[in-house]
Backbone:
């Protein structure tokens, strides 16, 4: 018989805590002001000690103060996680430039590698396979450039 999960709302808890800390950074709150916001919203000074409902109140207060979850994603790292060996292969720079031009993220490049070559991670691709990903991205870019010209 399976035991019940000790924290049934753990995924929600983790998402809320991550959003609270993202809001803290996005709003530029120092530790003292951050604790003040928590205290004013719930009476507690630690988000980790709060219930889901209390963390929801904190997030509402952060939104009232100007936090928008999408604003945190507008940073330069919005392409997602770079390959861990990014600095060792100049082909990754070319892939990153094409991803930026097409508005896609590293997950898109990884999906191409998975679909074309059966690789679980882009880091596992050989130089020839990376060239294939670059070619696919260039074709995607050209195809969508011609779509934009037709619209204009």
Residues:
């Amino acid at each position: 018989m399976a035991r019940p999960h000790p924290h049934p709302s753990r995924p929600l808890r983790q998402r809320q805590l991550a959003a609270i800390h993202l809001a803290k950074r996005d709003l530029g709150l120092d530790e003292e002001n951050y604790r003040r916001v928590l205290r004013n919203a719930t009476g507690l000074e630690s988000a980790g000690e709060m219930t889901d409902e209390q963390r929801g109140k904190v997030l509402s207060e952060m939104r009232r103060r100007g936090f928008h979850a999408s604003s945190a994603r507008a940073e330069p790292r919005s392409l997602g996680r770079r390959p861990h060996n990014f600095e060792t292969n100049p082909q990754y720079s070319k892939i990153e430039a094409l991803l930026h031009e097409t508005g896609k993220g590293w997950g898109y490049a990884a999906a191409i590698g998975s679909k074309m070559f059966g690789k679980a991670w882009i880091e596992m691709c050989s130089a020839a396979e990376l060239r294939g990903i670059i070619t696919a991205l260039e074709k995607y870019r050209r195809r969508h450039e011609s779509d934009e010209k037709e619209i204009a």
Residues 92 and 101 are 14 Å apart (CA to CA). The helical segments are 10-27, 31-42, 52-64, 69-72, 90-102, 106-117, 127-151.
